[in-house]
Amino acid sequence: MWLLQEKINGYLVFLESDEILESYPDYRGRSAKIRVVGKYPLSGDASAFYMKMSPIILEAGFGLEFRLLAEGEGS
Asked: What is the C-alpha separation between 71 and 52, in angstroms, rounded?
């Protein structure tokens, strides 16, 4: 969980700074969502983590989404 939280924090720093506009100038005025794609379903702890983090990230003006990789996708 700690590694995932650190990664999400890094994305938030990127989104909240002007760094995103340097990399993606067309981003201005658009909304952003942090999407995590997993090979396996979320555990109970991971689900609780997402439920806790989602409102915090939403308050910052962004979205948080988990998507389970479909069978055979990404191999």
From this structure: 28
Assessment of whether the complete model's pTM goes beyond 0.70: yes
**Contact of 56 with 25, CB cutoff 8 Å:** no
How many other CB atoms are there within 10 angstroms of residue 17's CB atom? 10
To 10 degrees, the CA torsion angle through 8, 11, 16, 20? -170
Strand partners, 35: 65
Residue 30: partners with Cβ closer than 8 Å, 6 or more residues away: none
Contact call for residues 53 and 8 (beta carbons, < 8 A): yes
pLDDT digits (tens, 9 = 90+) for 40-67: 999 999 999 999 999 999 999 999 999 9
Contact between 38 and 73 under an 8 Å Cβ cutoff? The reply is no
- Tokens read off for 5: 């939280």
